[in-house]
Each structure stands twice: as structure tokens, then as C-alpha cells.
Amino acid sequence: RYEIYEDGGVVPVLNATTKQNYTATEFPPYSRHTYRVHMCTIKGCNPGEEAVAYTQEIAPNGTVHLTATLINPTTVRANWSHVAVPNGRLFYNLMVSGRFIVRGSITMETELRVERAARVEYAGREFEYAGLLPYNRYEFFVNASNTVGYILSNIISGTTGEAAPDGIRPPNVTVLNSTAVMVSWQPPALPNGVLLGYELRQKSGDLETVVYRGNGLEKLVTDLKPYTLYQFR
Q: Which positions are tagged coiled coil (predicted)?
């Protein structure tokens, strides 16, 4: 005789002499269940090892509400609510759509793409992501998904604040004669805001002076000493 016990129960869900299979129904999606078979003779019963099974997932059911605040030019602080009925192992993916540096770029080239800032199984806690670029517009949303389906949150948009320029390349210096050079430069790879102008500095020995302020991209520097080392930045 066989007895099958389900989920630690004390009353067998199957008590049969010949039947060797059992089908359980009407369980919630992605629920955990345990089974143990007792084999019995006229002398008594002996339990076998416990087996564990999960029902299959179905798409999650509910909503996700996102709140997000830009706290500095590169960082967003986000928080999102729980999905009421996960119906499986649910992951919360914080997605960020906007401009990012191209992966592997050494010249700080940028591109528009959607970046996954977080993939976690919790909700209701604050999360900070510090991969934004200053002075750019971004959209934030949460994709709450299991293996079968997903739920999208509301979308929050915002523009990051300004910061100092980044990706400033060394200037090009062309020697014209023994007392003059032409210095030219390029705009920064990441302006990070509205550029107010450029400042060119000249250094010889321990003395550093500003030789240009303005919006141009080149400067003719004259009245230099022959055969003298000058540095420009």
C-alpha cells in the first residue's frame, strides 16, 4: 500500500494499494510543494525521501509605481513599489534611456541607448545610480519581469544639471618662427553644460600666464624667446 503526504500534512492525499501516480491541481502559480511517499505492509509503514516541486510561473499581475529624483549632475535616486502578484520569481529592472559614453571609447564618444541601472529582487528601498552625464535629458522606468511576462512602471523624465567640462584634449602647437607659434584646440568631448569660453595658459619655467580668453579655437602667440621651451594648455 502507498500513502502520499503533501506539504507536510498528516493526512495522506493518496492511500492506494496499486496506484503509483498522483496529480495535484488548483495550486497558485510558482508555489512550492513537498511530497513524501510512505510504503506500507501489514507490519507498518516506512517513509521515503521528500521531493520538492514548484508550479510554473505565469505573467505578473499588478502595477509598479516609480519615484525618481536627480540629486546631482550624474546621480539619480529611485524607489519603486512592489508588484501585488508576482506569479513567479520577479526581478525589478531600473531602466535609463538617454545619452551615455560608448563602451570602450577612449575619446569619450557618446551615444543614445537604454541602460539597465539595476536588476534586483526587492522593492520599497532607495537605490542610487551614478552613471548619468551632466546636462543631458533622461527617462527612467522599471521593468518588473519573470520568465513569462513583465510589467512596466510609469516613466519619469529629467535633465541633469551642469558640471565642469570633461574630455579636454591637449592643444596643437605649430611653430611659425623663432618667436611665434599658432596654438589651436578642439571643443571638449563632454561640454557638460553651456560653454562660456576658453582660457589658454602658457608656461615657461615656473611662470604660467593666461594668454587668451574667449570663444575661439586658436590663438597666435608672439613675442616668444628663441630656442625656449614653452608649454600650453
A: none
CATH architecture of 172-232: Sandwich (2.60)
Helix (H) or strand (E) holding 44: strand 44-47
Place of cell 567640462: 165
Q: Which residue carries 501489514 as its cell?
A: 42
The string of DSSP letters for 80-137 reads EPPPSB--S--EEEEEEEEEEEPTT-SS--EEEEEEEEEEES--SS-EEE--PPTT-E
Residue (of 215, 178, 181, 176) closest to 199 by Cα position: 215
- Are 91 and 135 within 8 A, CB to CB? no
User: For 88, how many CA atoms within 13 A lie in the half-sphere containing its CB?
Assistant: 17
Domain 66-160 sits in CATH at 2.60.40.10
Tens digits of pLDDT across the chain (233 residues):
899 999 999 999 988 877 888 898 989 999 999 999 999 998 899 999 999 999 999 999 999 999 999 999 999 999 999 999 999 999 999 999 999 999 999 999 999 999 999 999 999 999 999 999 999 999 999 999 999 999 999 999 999 999 999 999 999 999 999 999 999 999 999 999 999 999 999 999 999 999 999 999 999 999 999 999 999 99
